[in-house]
What we know:
Number of strands: 16
CATH superfamily of the largest domain: DHBP synthase
CATH topology of the largest domain: DHBP synthase
Helix content: 25-40%
CATH architecture of the largest domain: Alpha-Beta Complex
Distance between the termini: 50 Å
Strand order of the largest sheet: 1-8-2-3-7-4-6-5-9-10-11
Number of domains: 2
Number of helices: 9
CATH class of the largest domain: Alpha Beta
Mean pLDDT: 93
Order of helices and strands: EHEEHEHEEHEHEEEHEEHEEHEHE
Shape: globular
Low-confidence stretches: none
Structural class: alpha/beta
Amino acid sequence: METKIVIMEENKIDERSIEEAAKVIRDGGLVAFPTETVYGLGANALEEEAVKNIFKVKGRPQDNPLIIHVADYRIEEYVKDIPEVAQRVMTEFWPGPITLVLNKSDKVPDITSAGLDTIGVRMPSDKIARELIMKSGVPIAAPSANISGRPSPTEVGRCIEDLNGKIEYILGGKGSQVGLESTILDCTVDPPCVLRPGAVTLEMLRKIHSKIYIDPAVMEKPKDNLRPKAPGMKYRHYAPKAPLKIVRGDLKKTIAKINEMVQNYIDDGKTVGIMATNETKESYTNGIVLSLGSRKNLDNIAKNLFEVLRSFDDKGVDFILSEGFEELGIGIAIMNRLKKSAGFDILDV
Length: 349
């Protein structure tokens, strides 16, 4: 398959290209497109065969439900009801990086929701994404635009790496501003439950409803007595090609332990990547060191996380060691993604 690739200049909307991509969506094809969270791989959410192709191209398990993306607040035809708390979240945070899980209407095919009676709905704030949805005239089902299991793409080049020749169209724009997938809030339960942390943090949501909580299984390795409520969260996600281990605790002890481990790997003839920060990068004497940004700006660390993981793939390292981060605010989302990238391989120091 020949993939058409169009990369737009920042802040310039190419209406003709968006209309071409929208026609691909209407005709049952697949389009990769930017959002403020990560790049998405989109299809007509209401067309079964189109949605099947998302699972096929990504290699995504079919019991992992998709999120549908809309361009305005009129979602009544896709869901059975909108609880008051959901309305308040929509008013406060849409368009933006939060997905609401609601009871779906019969208009949404079961394949889109992976057979569940609920569906995740989001209104992205990215201008290209919104234009594409509006011109398509249908909600767009869109997981991240990568091969399933790999770090999500925040730059169009990563979509091209994974999907060129496999889908009809790739729309490129600027890099994703958030860099982590949307917060997912289940509004079918009371109190609402965060199924995936993101840039809309627990602290922000508790201003809407003080009892909103995070599913305890989100931050822990799945166990028989602690399984995530969201079906897709049981799968390996965000993983680079090399094994990743998180070293967390007192920062000085973390640095010392990572330096010790790196030397052991080097002695065994292995190459090691170190995920550091601006404050610590000069403290590592060996290995390939990449900074995620400053610890004083966790939003920037979140934005850079997946691209740094991908960069270690580019460099062909044998192992990756990462510093840990405080699980507060967006730090919860950062550590959620890091833990899943590492398969919950964590060393406390």
